[in-house]
Give the backbone structure.
Amino acid sequence: MNFYCKKCNHHLIENLIQAKKEEILYDDEQDLIPIGKFVLNEGIWNFDDLEITYLVNADSIVLKNHYNSVKMQGCCGPSGMDGLNKLCPNCSQEIGVLVSDCYTPRFIGIDKNKVSESPIW
């Protein structure tokens, strides 16, 4: 699977493979999903009102931290409770949410409304 920013068409990530359910680990401070893989967020993590469809390994995608430091709050890292906190490195569109606090596994949730699986143009 590939992801492109819907705002600027920047290629964000390529060749992700869907992880199997048994590869998902809920251990605190550990990767939720192996590098190079994704999983559909079907009851895996509750993001309240955010439309987070894809969960990816945080080391599999290069995004910028949000300019609003409030969105990066947490005890030991972003908890993901303050909305989208990761930006497209090209146009700074909000793309996803990094979850990496000491009481959570580590991953990035991708908002389905901000990315496409193929180039827009």
